[in-house]
């Protein structure tokens, strides 16, 4: 008999449903969990008890002012169960600790002056984790790691086939980080994880057909959600929108002598150059563009918006999404004139494809890739909450912030 058909299999599936609900939706009362799962009150109570005993959720007193009748305790995912989220880029390595309740407990951006090897990235991550375990994560259970990589990641084994801006080819980064930290590690393309995070918790929550486009130091990547499903493609490489070659209507708009891809022309590096910044994180670059009165900055922003609009129109013609989400420096380009960018895209699409199209800035800000990385790190635990290799013997969390 298959495990799913056994009593234990059904129990584990129900534990997964309850844990995923409080992880994705936030704190819910037992009554709300009963409504959402269709299970009876006593079964939900038993499941919550099992999850609480494993340290995965905790219960708090009900809000007596908001409910008539018998009060129902609120159930929350534990802030002490933590995944390490990792995003290597050409100019920095960002590492964060993201809790099961989706709070970011600690975040560190380590700037680098030259490209670093995957071995060095793994060592830097391990150093962060070791230091945090002695400090801000001393009372936490670190269960896994997730990596958002700006490059092609092979789905079947997590091999980084090619990250051109980082100069990585066939790099086993997932296994290197797992070896260095001792943590189960998951890995995927950064834009794919941005699409996952924004569709679950951000600007495209509950949107079934969306295109996510990420602009970072390593270029432009894309993620796709079609019919409510994250699309990875046959090998895991779907969504490389930055490698498209859009037509450039005005020859004066062309800057690159290279291949003429989107990311050759729509470039964070070019924005840094015109704002006279050597390096900057996303909020700093955005602030510099907003504060600038330079004609050169305005001209570069307008030029990049024109080329971006053509690339987005091509995606709309092929995929017919209802929403496009722009992250990173692309969100800054959008914010200069949101309605104008939508109009420019609509002018280049066929028929009715973009009549109701919305283009939104990523809502999760600079944490979007880290949230996506944490999500794939937590996935095995969400599927099987009591799996022995991810649940520690730590005492359950108590609201006072220490073991009960």
Automatic annotation (TrEMBL):
Presence of keyword Cell division: no
Keywords: Kinase, Transferase
One Pfam family named in its UniProt record: ROK
Kinase as UniProt keyword: yes
Domain annotation HTH marR-type: ranges: 17-63
Gene Ontology molecular-function annotations: DNA-binding transcription factor activity; kinase activity
Family to which this protein belongs: Belongs to the ROK (NagC/XylR) family.
Protein name: Sugar kinase
Species of provenance: Microbacterium dextranolyticum
């Amino acid at each position: 008999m298959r495990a799913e058909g056994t009593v234990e299999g059904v129990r584990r599936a129900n534990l997964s449903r309850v844990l995923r609900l409080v992880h994705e939706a936030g704190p819910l009362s037992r009554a709300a969990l009963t409504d959402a799962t269709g299970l009876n009150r006593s079964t939900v109570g038993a499941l919550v008890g099992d999850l609480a005993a494993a340290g995965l959720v905790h219960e708090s007193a009900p809000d007596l002012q908001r409910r008539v009748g018998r009060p129902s305790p609120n159930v929350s995912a534990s802030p002490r169960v933590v995944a390490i989220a990792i995003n290597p880029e050409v100019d920095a390595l960002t590492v964060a600790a993201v809790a099961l309740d989706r709070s970011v407990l600690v975040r560190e951006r380590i700037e680098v002056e030259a490209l670093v090897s995957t071995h060095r990235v793994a060592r830097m991550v391990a150093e962060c984790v070791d230091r945090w375990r002695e400090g801000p994560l001393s009372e936490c259970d670190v269960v896994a790691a997730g990596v958002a990589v700006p490059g092609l990641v092979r789905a079947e084994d997590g091999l980084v086939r090619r990250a051109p801006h980082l100069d990585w080819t066939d790099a086993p980064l997932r296994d290197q980080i797992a070896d260095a930290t001792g943590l189960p590690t998951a890995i995927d393309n950064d834009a794919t994880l941005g699409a996952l995070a924004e569709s679950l918790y951000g600007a495209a929550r509950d949107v079934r057909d969306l295109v996510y486009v990420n602009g970072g130091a390593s270029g432009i990547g894309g993620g796709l959600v079609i019919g409510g499903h994250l699309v990875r493609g046959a090998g895991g490489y779907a969504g490389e929108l930055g490698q498209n070659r859009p037509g450039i209507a005005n020859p004066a708009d062309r800057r690159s002598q290279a291949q003429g891809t989107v990311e050759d022309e729509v470039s964070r590096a070019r924005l840094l150059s015109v704002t006279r910044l050597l390096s900057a994180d996303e909020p700093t670059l955005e602030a510099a563009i907003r504060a600038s009165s330079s004609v050169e900055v305005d001209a570069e922003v307008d030029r990049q918006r024109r080329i971006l609009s053509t690339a987005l129109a091509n995606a709309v013609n092929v995929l017919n999404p209802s929403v496009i989400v722009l992250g990173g420096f692309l969100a800054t380009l959008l914010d200069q004139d949101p309605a104008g960018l939508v109009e420019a895209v609509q002018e280049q699409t066929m028929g009715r494809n973009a009549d109701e199209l919305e283009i939104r800035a990523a809502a999760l800000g600079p944490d979007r890739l880290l949230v996506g990385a944490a999500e794939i790190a937590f996935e095995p635990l969400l599927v099987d909450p009591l799996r022995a290799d991810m649940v520690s013997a730590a005492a359950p969390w108590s609201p006072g912030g220490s073991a009960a």
